[in-house]
Write a structure and sequence with these properties.
single chain; alpha/beta
């Protein structure tokens, strides 16, 4: 898929999401962004998109609420007149020991990491059909793709990201007759959390066969690659520097 004068929606406008949005805008796409509490970061991303000469729509959304997911998609479609791509990137990644984990925290994690991808996709499908087809890209995790949780304290995250793989495969089957391709990306060590120590950074590098963190561009490159592969659907692509083979 060529992105010139197409419309791409992205759930998340900071850090990795910001780079994905900007790189898609460089390819000629107009961008719809939603954010929850990170308005300052989303504003910076929107400004960068406008500097590239592309249009941008931005909306605050709590993706645990179905009405917010649907409003973001439908208001974006109304603004631009079409939708061609949906990138479901929103995620909660917070460590919490199992013995301290509440039902509410589990539900929130699953709602953002998996359920919102379903709801946003469901809202986007009529617009994608109207455009003659399109693409949905979901975000899983390299651990879920590898079939091993590995790190204690991330139970709801792992469960949700494993569910995203199933969602991707099932949606791909359901939507193939409409020429809507559905794939997922499973990132590995891409961008360290701000509180990561130098020792932790070095340990991750040692554990990654390619010997480094991937950086945000690794993910935007993967998104663009999946959009160009018109005969690929139902796949989950690991972008982890070979982490899964060590």
């Amino acid at each position: 898929m060529e992105l010139t004068n197409r419309v791409a929606l992205i759930t998340g406008g900071k850090r990795i999401g910001a780079v994905v949005a900007i790189e898609m805008a460089k390819q000629g796409a107009d961008i719809g962004l939603c954010y929850n509490r990170s308005k300052t970061e989303a504003d910076k991303t929107a400004a960068a998109i406008k500097e590239l000469g592309r249009k941008v729509f931005m909306r605050q959304a709590d993706l645990t609420k179905a009405s917010h997911c649907e409003a973001f998609v439908n208001e974006s479609a109304k603004t631009f007149g079409r939708i061609d791509v949906l990138v479901n990137m929103a995620s909660i990644y917070v460590a919490k020991p199992f013995n301290e984990l509440t039902v509410e925290e589990f539900d929130e994690n699953v709602a953002v990491d998996m359920r919102s991808a379903f709801i946003c996709s469901r809202a986007a499908v009529p617009h994608l059909r109207k455009a003659g087809g399109g693409a949905i890209i979901n975000f899983s995790d390299w651990l879920s793709k590898s079939g091993r949780p590995r790190y204690p304290g991330f139970l709801p995250y792992y469960v949700a990201k494993t569910g995203v793989i199933g969602l991707t495969e099932a949606l791909a089957l359901e939507l193939a007759p409409d020429k809507i391709r559905v794939n997922a990306i499973a990132p590995g060590p891409i961008l360290a959390p701000p509180e990561t120590s130098d020792e932790e950074l070095a340990n991750v590098e040692k554990s990654t066969p390619l010997g480094q963190w991937g950086g945000e561009k690794a993910i935007s490159d993967a998104v663009l690659a999946l959009l160009k592969m018109d005969f690929v659907t139902g796949e989950t692509l690991r972008v982890d520097g070979g982490r899964h083979i060590r």
